[in-house]
Amino acid sequence: MEYLLIETDEKNPIPYAINKNRAIDIRMITREGFDGLSKWNLLEMELPMEFFFPDLLCRPCVMVSEEMIKTILIYHPETLYRGVKLWERESGTNASYFIPLLEELPCLSERTQYNSVGNRIVKPVLDRSTIGEAVVFRIKNFDRNCIVGREDFVESILCRRIRGIRMEEVESE
After folding, report:
1. Alpha carbon distance 151, 99 (integer Å)
2. Which residues are CB-contacts of 76 (< 8 A; sequence separation ≥ 6)?
3. Number of domains the chain contains
4. How does pLDDT run across 12-35, given as a tens digit for each residue?
5. Rounded CA gap, 87 and 25, in Å?
6. pTM of this prediction?
7. Is 86 helix (H, G, I), strand (E, B) or coil?
C-alpha cells in the first residue's frame, strides 16, 4: 500500500447544496483561474436535521478543514489555497474550510480498468513514474472528485484525528 484515494464518507449526514448561491465558479479552480478567486468566499449550504462537518468535503469541489490544510502545507508548502465560509441562512450555522489548488497529475497506468463502454474508470492503477515527489494530489481526468495521498501523508492526517473520510487503497506500478 503506497497510495490511497481519500474522499468524503457519504454515510455521514454532511452539508449539501454547497455553493447554492453560486459565489464561486468551480471552473475557476485551476492554475490559470485561481488568482481570480477572492481570498475568502461565503458559500451558502443546506444542512440535514442532524449534521456533521467532516475534514474533507469533495462536492462541489475539494474543500478541507484547517487541520487538513496545515497537513497539506507540511508536505507541499507552495500549495495555493482560498478560504471559504460555509453558511446556512436559516440557523446561521457556519464552518470554515479551505480550497487547495492541488496538482492534477496524468498518472493513470495502462493497466487502469474501465467499464464496458470505456467512459468510466472502474479500477484506477497509478503509474509511479509520473507521480514524482507528489504526496497529495488529484488524478487528471478521473471521474471521482477525490484526492490521492501517499502513505506517509495518510498516516499524518490519521494522527491528527481527521474525521469523516473514507479511504481506499489504489494499486500502483
Report:
1. 22
2. 103, 134, 135, 136
3. 1
4. 899 999 999 999 999 889 899 999
5. 17
6. 0.91
7. strand
